[in-house]
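Worked Example 4.2. Consider the chain below.
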Amino acid sequence: MLSYRHSFHAGNPADVIKHLVLSEVLGYMTKKDKPFDYIDTHSGAGLFELSSADSQKTQEYQQGIAKLWPYQGKNDAIQRYCDVIKQVNQTQQLSHYPGSPKVAEQFLRKQDNGWFFELHPRDLALLQENTSHKRSLRVSGTDGFKGLLGKIPPASRRACVLMDPPYEIKTDYEKAADTMIKAYKKFASGVYMIWYPVVNRERIDAMEAKLIDSGVRNIQLFELATRADSDELGMTASGMIVINPPWTLKPTMDEVLPELTTLLGEDEGAFFRSVQLVAE
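Applying the procedure from the previous section yields the following structure tokens:
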């Protein structure tokens, strides 16, 4: 199925937590001069215009990035995330939102490589256009699950992976976890991130159980719920599962998530989770 397009959802609360965690991880990766490979399994178009017909149809960004723009709080990580978004907006007006490729591009240095996978033909063409200015950013119109396993272990011996499939197919929940476990077994020192939506809590519970029982070490989970769990309201929450996270990530998210819950929560059912699923 290739019907999913992120242009309808760009900048929503799910993007906020996804890209804030991604920014924190990539920022930590660049503290060392050694090169690393960034692998993005489901990249999308890379950049989104918030005045487009798609964004305006749903206006999901109004419940996400628009509530943080301009940020006037004191949390350094939220400010860093907003600074990343500012980089794709030429004025103080919020007109564009970066997908994960454009977020990653801000951190990747000349010694680093970016590998991007996208199957949707229209988004693939846009992604190629949005990354064509850098030779170190390479785009492939092939399956990202398989693409990841073909790229590790990387020549750099350092890897940062983001997997955020659309989950149009229910088996993607299990496939995402299985693929990350396989990747870990091929290259245990990589940093692996899985984004997930909470539409049905049982599927997330199953993903967590599979990862906990897999033998993979050092797994953390960060989740933002703007509403209470419900099987009738569509996505009520989303989160990031991070394998081999930077040591700074959980303390940072422990401070970020309460504030995001206050700023982005839609009703009294809003909550967050910051959990060490598996110890180091």
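The longest strand covers residues 191-198. The mean pLDDT is 96. Compare this with Example 4.1 before moving on.
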